[in-house]
Structures are given as structure tokens and as C-alpha cells.
Amino acid sequence: MTVALSIVCAVSLAWWAAQLVLFLVGGGRVRRLSALESAMPDGGWPRLSLVMPARNEAAHLEAALSLKLASSYPNLELVLVNDRSTDDTGSIAERIAAKDARLKVVHLAELPEGWLGKLHAMAKGLEACTGEFVLFSDADVFIAPGVFEKVISTAQREALGFLCVFPRITPGGAVLRLAITTMFRVLTLFTRPWAVSDPRSSASIGVGAFNLVRRSALAKTKGLEWLKLETGDDVALGWMMKASGARCDIFFGGDDVHLEFYPSFGVMMRAVEKNGASAPAGLLVLGALILLVLEAGFFAGFAVGGAWAIAAAVILVGGPVLAWRVARWAGTPAGPAPITWLGVFPFSFVLVRSALLALVRGGVSWRGTFYPTKVIARGRRYFARRP
Hints:
Elements lengths: L1 H25 L4 E2 L15 E7 L3 H12 L6 E8 L5 H9 L5 E6 L8 H12 L4 E4 L5 E2 L3 H11 L4 E8 L4 H18 L19 E4 H4 L14 H11 L4 E12 L5 H8 L8 H16 L3 H5 L2 H24 L13 H18 L1 E4 L2 E4 H6 L9
Parallel strand pairs: 1-9, 2-3, 2-5, 3-4, 7-9
Antiparallel strand pairs: 5-8, 6-9, 7-8, 10-11
Helix pairs in contact: 1-10, 1-12, 2-3, 6-12, 6-13, 9-13, 10-13
């Protein structure tokens, strides 16, 4: 038993040490929007189209749209795709569009077979827009004036084909904050955002809140239709762009790009259900168990005693410091940092729950449509890692 506990502790210690090293090595390489210049590119400001899929977004839609329309970007169009909403999303958007000609509203009443709703809405928005640059952004994202000028001038100056912005997120509830803090810290380790801009690296990332594509670069990929059944649509888009040879980069948005990520832990659980078929249930459950060992396994050192207990105490104290720094760096909640190791429990629960629900149901429900697991499996792109 002592040997087994020592191994568990050693694996967890290595995990936390790897996080520290990677953060120290790469943490300073991701730029912030606030540091970007917004000089007009040679030839003037290109046409920018903001495509916003929206389904039942009435709660935040008017405020978010109003802030986007406060932009002074001189060549801007907004396309809101009302994807079969059952609330006031469509009427709110139409009322705002009647006052500002830059906003166009596309209403979708049906979903074609073989498409996920959001990706279908993105594709319809792409068809309806005219921009040289297309920004795919969730309808409830708040984007401050001046952001469009910064990202477009940067994309032009650095010849970027894809640019995404990681927003500042505001989740509700203590359990949700714990889960999200762990989720984003783990995702940061695996996606390596600091390496996205390196064309020699395979690192890629996409963010549903802010994925900017150059239309000519998107045309060199297999397109949104190829991704039409990919549950991880945002990261898959970034991966597809990077795999096609597009120059890519990521920035932190801070106060300039922000959103309420989920209002409660229950909402997060239901939202993540769609990912239950992204991989075999057994693999997702195994991944959750491994994550539990990595994040909290260092506690085994206290049971072993001696040097292992000292090492565990170092992680118990140092882990929260690292979690706090990562949270401040990425714009995620920093409050849960002192008990950051607890976040793995609600996060793992969400993963296991989604996998078991998909197994029991034989598929997943998303945006009011049921998709059998075999259908999702055929459409898997990013998780299958086939460019």
C-alpha cells in the first residue's frame, strides 16, 4: 500500500511541477488586447463581419449588441443568426436592427439533418455576410469599442489568417467557480496557447467567444460543413485553420472582451452534456479518474509520511499560488485559488456525468435536437485529430 501511495503522490507532484514549468516558460508569450496598436492598415480598414449564432439569448442580447454597435470601426456589419429561439431573441434583434442598418438578422426555423445547430447557424451567417474578415462570436459576448480596430490592424500587420481572444469570464456560484478554474488551468496545459503563434508547433486553439478568420484563409480549409457535427466547434475551427497553414495567434481580452460563462453549476452540467459523445464513455471516465489522481493525488504523501509528506505540503501551499497566478493571467476567477485542488471534483463529475448520460441515452441532446452517438462519432474531427 505504501508503494502505491508513493507512486500516486509522485505522479501528482510531477503534474504540478509540469504546470509550474510550462507556465513560467510560456506564460509571458500570450499578448493582451490592451497592448495592441490600432493603426489603420495600408489600403484602409477592410470589411469586418461579426457573425453571432443565437439561441434563446434574450437575457443578455440587447446589452451585448448595444455595446458591439457602439464600435466606431468604419467598415462593420453584424449578422445575428436567430437559431430557432423560443424566447424574445428574434424580436429584440429585429428591434435593434430597425435602428441600425449595420445589423442584419437571419431567422432559422429548421435544422437540416446532419448538422449541429450552432455550426449550421455559423454557416448561414457566413453565407449572409460580406466581410473580408469574419468574426464568429457568441451573441452574449460583450466586446468593447476599439477592439475591432486592434484585432484587424494586428491581423493585417502580422498576416494572420486566424486570431482568437480569450475573454474574461464571470461565472456564478462557488462550485461553478471551482470547476471552471480547474477546467481552464488544465486546458491551458494541454492546448499550450503560448505556442499557437509558432508555425512550427502543432499547438492550436479556438474560443467560441471570439474567433476571427480571414475569409481567404478559411477558403483554403475544408470549411464549416466539414465540422458540422463537431461538438468542440470552437477549438476545432482553430485547429482546422492551423492545420491548413494559416498563421494563427491568441490574445487575452481582459475587460475588453468578457461574458458570463454560466449562471450556475447546473447550467454548466447541462451545457457540457453535448460533449458526452465526443469520445467513448470509458475513455472519458478514465480521463476523469486520471485527472483526479493528478490534481489531488499529492495528498497521499501525508499518509506515507517523511519526505513525501513534505513534498505534499509544498504542493498544498504552492498549488494555490500557481492557480492564483494562472487565473489572473487568463482572466478566470482567482477566488477559488486557496482550495484549487477541490475544483477537480466538480469538473470530473461533469465529465463522468456527460459520458454516462450519453451512454444511457445512446446520444446527446443539444439546442433541442437529439444526436445518436454513432452520428457524432462519424462527424468527429478535432477529437479524431484528422486534418
